[in-house]
Amino acid sequence: MLDIITFDVNAVYVMDKAYIDFKALYSMHESGAFFISRAKATMDFSVIEVNYNIDETTGLRSDKTIILNGYKSKKLYPEPFRLVKFYDDEKDTVLRFITNNTSASALEIARLYRYRWQIEIFFKWIKQNLTIKKLWGHSENAVNIHIWVAICTYLIVAKIKHSIKSDLSIYEIIQILGISVFDKTPIRELLTEYQINQDVNEQLNLFSE
Questions:
Q1: How far apart are CA 112 and CA 11, in angstroms?
Q2: Rg (CA), the chain
Q3: pTM for the whole thing?
Q4: pLDDT, tens digit, for every residue of 80-129?
Q5: Residue 190: its pLDDT value, please?
Q6: Domain 12-128 sits in which CATH superfamily?
Q7: Hey, where are the domains in the chain?
Q8: Residue 18 backbone zone (phi > 0: left; psi -120 to 50: alpha; other: beta)
Q9: What angle do CA 24, 25, 28 make, to 5 degrees?
Q10: Most buried of the four, 10, 24, 141, 150, by CB within 10 Å?
Q11: How is the chain split among helix, strand and coil, in percent rounded to 5?
């Protein structure tokens, strides 16, 4: 996709090191966009400048300007870029980030990459909690509308669960409401009746064992 998409000027593209492609990164750089990615351990480079004005209490370990050494990689990305090292005390590991952004601080670079994980967590939450079996459409607008409707539905059900203090899971409530669309029974009674029936069935199953 890095060879296909059009990069937006001043946008920051944060990606995993599996997506490192120096040709694509240089194209991004020439387009006026910024990238932040994890550096591969095998990256061959030379340091041309060091920023000593860092606070190691924040987790930062170094902020350097580097240039690639390898013949092929240097040809694909001929200009200098930054290498930022950051110590993650939660995972007890040192992370290395590469970026062409020279205006942001080293700490901002590290934090921007960390924010990427919030997006990953959000995607994981969507897959685990939202029932989207088939998209209504495949345009950007159609996908956005479908996901937002699903999120709003989930939040409304979560609000209902909290308001009536139901012991049922949000998934169970969604299933009940899904098969009771035209039922005029108040939601509290509907869910309470379901809970009672469920408890009775569990007791019957217990005695039948």
A1: 12
A2: 26
A3: 0.69
A4: 999 999 999 988 999 999 999 999 999 999 999 988 888 888 888 888 88
A5: 85
A6: Transposase Inhibitor Protein From Tn5; Chain A, domain 1 (3.90.350.10)
A7: 12-128, 131-208
A8: alpha
A9: 90
A10: 24
A11: 50, 20, 35
